Amino acid sequence: MNRRLISLLLALVFTLGSAAQASADTTRVLIKTSVGEIELELDGDKAPGTVENFLRYVDEGFYNGTIFHRVINGFMIQGGGFTTDLDQKRGHAPIQNEAKNRLSNARGTIAMARTSAPHSATSQFFINHKDNDNLDYPSFDGWGYAVFGRVTGGMETVDRIADVATTTKMGMQNVPVESVIIENITRITN
Predict the structure, then answer these.
(1) Are 152 and 28 in contact (CB under 8 A)?
(2) Is the pLDDT of residue 176 over 70?
């Protein structure tokens, strides 16, 4: 009887320890925009470098006052690098592409934006407005776009942003006619 009780207790401790470790690798953030809020859960287990990079910008307040500067309904909304005057903010050094993490660019996931160079992501990110599995590793260029989290609240805000009228400004296409401002991004603590 004692062996059985000890085995059950050990199994319980192991299960609780595993759950605590899993939650330690998950961070939640809140994006407050001029049209609503978006809550995200970041996957530090499958995209550790990408999450660390994103949180560095969050903690520095880098995203405060930036805009969603590229919005394509039925594709994605992109932000995190330009001011309302379309001045590009200078970020940190580019990070390694973690698109091989088996996370898919499904509707409601967040991924790093980059140039045609696979390891060029800095601060800009996008939220998929539809399933974009064509952006998953290996994609069209052998790399893909690194997903590092998902929307857990506020998908209606993502839809609202995707619905805004866009235009071409200063040589940039798909820019919202009226700025959609990222007021701030903060960590959610329990």
Answers:
(1) yes
(2) yes
* Phi and psi angles of residue 124, each rounded to the nearest 5 degrees, phi first: -75, 140
List of domains in the chain? 26-188 (2.40.100.10)
Spatial CB neighbours of 19, under 8 Å, sequence gap ≥ 6:
none
CB 118 within 8 A of CB 143: yes
User: In the predicted model, is pLDDT for residue 16 greater than 50?
Assistant: no
Rounded distance, CA 125 to CA 146, Å? 10
Could you read off the pLDDT of 92-106 as tens digits, one per residue? Answer: 999 999 999 999 999
Residue 24, φ and ψ in degrees, nearest 5: -65, -25
152 neighbors 30 (Cβ within 8 angstroms):
no
Nearest Cα neighbor of 98 from 57, 52, 65, 132 is 52
Beta strands in 133-171 (DSSP E): 147-153, 166-169
